[in-house]
Amino acid sequence: MVTYIFTLLLIVCNFFIIFTLEPVKLGILLPSNSKFPFSIVKVVPAIDLALEHVNRSGLLPNHILIKNVRDSNCSETIGPLEAIDLYVKREVNVFIGPVCDYAVAPVARFAPYWSIPVISAGAPVKAFDDKSEYKTLTRIQGSYGKNADFLWEITRTFNWSTIGLLFNDNHKVEMGKTDNFFTMEPIYHMFKEKTGYEPYFKAFDEKYPLTYDIEDLLYTASMNARIVVLCASADSVRDILIKAHELNFDNGEYVFLNIDLFSSKNDSEKPWYRAGDTDERNSKAMKAYEALMTVTLRKPTSKEYKNFSMEVKRRAKEKNVNFTYGEEEVNSFVGAFHDAVILYALALNETLAANKSITDGAEITNRMWNRTFEGIYRQTIAANGDI
Amino acid sequence: MVTYIFTLLLIVCNFFIIFTLEPVKLGILLPSNSKFPFSIVKVVPAIDLALEHVNRSGLLPNHILIKNVRDSNCSETIGPLEAIDLYVKREVNVFIGPVCDYAVAPVARFAPYWSIPVISAGAPVKAFDDKSEYKTLTRIQGSYGKNADFLWEITRTFNWSTIGLLFNDNHKVEMGKTDNFFTMEPIYHMFKEKTGYEPYFKAFDEKYPLTYDIEDLLYTASMNARIVVLCASADSVRDILIKAHELNFDNGEYVFLNIDLFSSKNDSEKPWYRAGDTDERNSKAMKAYEALMTVTLRKPTSKEYKNFSMEVKRRAKEKNVNFTYGEEEVNSFVGAFHDAVILYALALNETLAANKSITDGAEITNRMWNRTFEGIYRQTIAANGDI
Question: Where is the Receptor ligand binding region domain (chains A, B) (predicted)?
């Protein structure tokens, strides 16, 4: 009987605590389709970890973080509509995501007018550098602009002068530009600005393989540059490199760089191999890849990161028995979104301590910028709100 | 005393009628900046005329049309935000506007999910042809696609085979494409599709006159085509034509076509003349313009149209004493938006008669398509929702 009363008391107390805590609502906007490395099933377990950590830590003693997860569908329509719905129903204090450029653009345009911060591990296109338009957007993972900086440094290190760009893009203007185009865009502009010459570039539309000839692409590129930067699907890159091998372009005269920022580890560990292809082509591909340097996002190798990764995968499996993570370690979006929650909680804590409100999105955003903090990664957000 | 009671009764009756009528809310999304031919001050008086006409006509006996006017700012941010606000506050049954492509795109993407029709005299870019995405969008004025059809017909009539395109566009990708680009895009694709050859094209950025040389532009174009299609600001077109005159390109060997769909009449009646320029250049320009054919939107010449135009201008002046309309007749957007209200009222009447609801945006949209009706213009909306 005493145990019973005690248990009841405990439950009542818990309810009391929960109901007196002010909720902090994370509006999670990610795609449900698990083909994306930043899908709900892959990322939300990491957000849960961060959320539980913050709630346990006492960082926000009068608040409790809760999440409202919506399917952004990686869509310029559904993403913003879900954001609008969260806003209208007062179910969001901070948007976590979207990732896809076309989905995040309207959300990050509207958010300053709603005074709501947006934290994304995506939104990599250069347009989002302009924080006079995207006032409350914080980017917690590398952007295409940062990648261009990095590529520039590589070419300085090896003393390479002339680069050429080969990339996949949509022929049809109404389809918009591809991620590959947006990756190349700041590289082109950076080299043009720094060196004065215009890098050679050629786009092909890999949806229509009959509209271009890889041999032509390679010959023309080779007449303009010794350093060829590729940005396309893994299969297209492989086809180009096999052809390069056949044409003896992997003789040391040429260097191929592949920009593949967001691939999962499985994809990029043995990128030359295709189970369905012939031994001969796989062998050619393997040789050709020796002339290839791939630029991708760094992942930590620490024990903490391994544990984090294991726990995220365990939770993902627990919630979705039919889902297999498949990657050795979780991809870089997973850690970045975990850290987005930590960063927001730190900034909110300071904002409240300064007697400002949770509804002051500009203030909270301001406190997220120009700071270093410890999440899964040791993160530094620059004064411009980007990592 | 009797008069007093009678008047009181009349007022009470009026109130009673007004309050028993169900409001039909037109959400008007137009820019307040009067530099636009489709600005609030220019267009709303015409919408008022249409609205009063419908309310008097008995077409919707149990309803009363009212308008909620918002400043779209011709902006991809403010336009959608105002649309969202109207939707959330239940102040809109139909969106009239926006016009600007980047402003109307998100609104027309969201509207099907809100089940609200959108009628625009703008949204001319080819992307809006795709009604599987923009399900409730009706375009009541010519699109760039229609313009390409027309240009194709002209070239067939005169038996011209090879065209070249010279147009203004933004160098910087992050600034998006210009209206001039979007005008040229379907022309390029249509000629490529119909003839198999790719029309010569060259973009210049008129914001940076030092980045291009008009003489070069003309020489290169002349090596590729005898029919040169121009699309740029009136001043750029004039500069190009003066240079063409100096180079003797107006000797009958070449034809210049100028696409200038939305200019007001004042702009286009004496387009060669600039008060601030020298007599010599004005005279050169006048001669050069003899080799120029300008494609623009047709306006009716009927007495009804003249009366409509006068009444719109009178009302505009009445409401904004500081505003001078300045055009001989109101521009084509004004008539088109008037007709948008008539079209919506006709479709709503039929929808209600069929026992369907005013909230059934798909049904109302469906009844606006594939029909001919009398507004200020005699309008025919095709089965695809475009004029």
Answer: 45-376
Are the C-beta atoms of residues A31 and A38 closer than 8 Å to each other? yes
The strand pair at B378-381 and B371-374 is best described as antiparallel
Beta strand pairing status for A163-168 and B94-96? unpaired
CA B248/CA B245 separation, integer angstroms = 5
Count the Cβ atoms, other than its own, within 10 Å of residue A97. 34
Share of chain B above pLDDT 70, in %: 93
Chains A & B: contacts with CB separation below 8 Å: 39
CATH class, range B23-142+301-381: alpha beta
How far away is chain A from the Cα of B258, in angstroms, using its nearest Cα?
Answer: 23
Q: CA of B292, closest CA in chain A: separation in Å?
A: 29
Cβ contact, residue pair B174, A109, below 8 Å: no
Which chain A residues have a beta carbon less than 8 Å from that of B109? 76-77
| Residue B102 sits at the chain A interface (C-beta within 8 Å) | no
DSSP summary character for residue B337: H
Instruction: Compute the half-sphere exposure of residue B19: CA atoms within 13 Å on the CB side of its CA.
Output: 6
Q: Cβ of A109 and B173 within 8 Å?
A: no
Q: Is A127 on the interface with B (CB under 8 A)?
A: yes
- Which residues are within 8 A (CB) of A355 and not within 5 positions of it... i.e. 6 or more apart? none
Domain A24-142+301-381 has CATH 3.40.50.2300: yes
How do the residues of chain B divide into helix, strand and coil, expressed in percent and rounded to 5? 50, 15, 35
CATH topology agreement for domains A24-142+301-381 and A145-295:
yes
Q: Give yes or no for B127 touching A (CB within 8 A).
A: yes
Q: Search chain A and give the residue with CA nearest B189.
A: A172
State the average pLDDT for chain A: 91
CA quadruple B89, B92, B96, B102: dihedral positive or negative?
positive
Identify the closest residue of chain B to A75 by CA–CA distance.
B109
Is the ipTM reported for this complex over the cut 0.85?
no
Residues in chain A where the model's pLDDT stays below 50? 266
Inter-chain CB proximity B127 and A80 less than 8 Å: no
Closest CA in chain B for residue A174: B127
Domain boundaries, chain B: 23-142+301-381, 145-295
Of B81, B88, B133, the CB nearest to A110: B81
Chain-chain contact of A126 with B174 (C-beta, under 8 angstroms): yes
Q: Which two tokens stand for residue B96?
A: 């009239």
CB contacts under 8 A, B 159-178 vs A, are: 173-174, 177
CATH of domain A145-295: 3.40.50.2300
Pairing label, strands A378-381, A371-374? antiparallel
Q: Exposure of B56 by Cβ count < 10 A (0-12 exposed, 13-18 middle, 19+ buried)?
A: exposed
Q: What confidence tens digit (pLDDT) does each residue in B110-133 have?
A: 999 999 999 999 999 988 999 999
The span from the CA of A94 to the CA of A347, in Å, is: 12
